[in-house]
Specification:
9-stranded antiparallel β-sheet; 4 helices; 7-stranded antiparallel β-sheet; Beta-galactosidase, Chain A, domain 5; globular; mainly beta
Length: 374
Amino acid sequence: MPTLHPSACFIVSLLLLLPSGNLSAQTGSPQDWVRVTEDDRAIKIETSKLEAVIPKKNPKQWMTGIEKGSFLDKTTGFREAGDGLMVIDWLMEAGSDAAYSEKVNAPDGDGVGRYAWHENETDPGKKEYYRLSHGTTRRKRVVEGPQLCHRMKPVQPEVIRGPDFLAVKTSYQYEYAAPGRKPGSRWTQLIVFPKGERYFLLMDRIESVNDSEEMFLRNDTPGCVRHERGDTFSEMYLSYLGGANGLIIPAKEFFVPFPPDVKYGYRRDTNTIPERFIRAYHLRDKKTGKEGPWLGGLTLEPTVVYEAWCSQRPGNIIVMIEEIHGKKVKAGESFRAAHIVGFFDSIKEMEKVFDRYKGHTGLQTGAKGWQLLK
């Protein structure tokens, strides 16, 4: 694994840390390829190809990843059609939490044991909603919380500027844990915007303070899709189902809710490891019906995917949850995954980009630029 000496990691002339608290801190000039605007609430990145916002507090939807509605493809004028991109959730593991799900509440009021719905729920309406949202065939439980996407406290991301990239790094420690565990595992998300590209690279990394036989981090890759009978997208593409050419699913298949464990699901223990792990939806203009680009999420090392699903929940939302790692972890160890997320004109283009960067799980920045790591 490549290692950069700390003193050489960032050349002062290439490093720009934007000041916090400045309501209109702008970097660069109209001649530059990237412009960064930061205030107390968020960081806005504008490149020659993209726009994106990374929240610091008071998000429009979720705290983690790219903010809802902010990811813009300047080539076509299309935006993502969900609640944001690469949203992060709890730190979890396989197993049931039925023994303590009704007894333990976190300091922020969130229930540590909120995944025993199908075991403890008695209300028929709620039970059916939980079944449609999460299925019933696999038991999972929270190891540490909060659910970062909507209960994380304000953060101050680090903005890093290089010769041909702009990066944002956010880190946060989980604040509470399930019975018998301790809080304090650290999540780090590094997002790199390369010059001249319609996509960004992203790494999520967990440094665990707990042991687990089967620990994983849950996220949305690339993100959920909001729609009413397919008005915002025409089809879905999953490279890991349907054979060598992947599976293209028409929008009409998502008009009626269905559980994640009924169709379009992937499990590492029951599926063949695919050559590529690509999840994408084909955007279209909800007013005119005009076809737009694909918005794709590429997980660059398929073996890190523990489970993934693409399911229609009640409420006109398609969830694209992905769980990474799902292996034995000891306290003091870490795990990670690297992704590419962005706009593409075709499936072939997504495959070409995947093949260029495949096999990596890590990402770092340095004086010589950004670098993917095995």
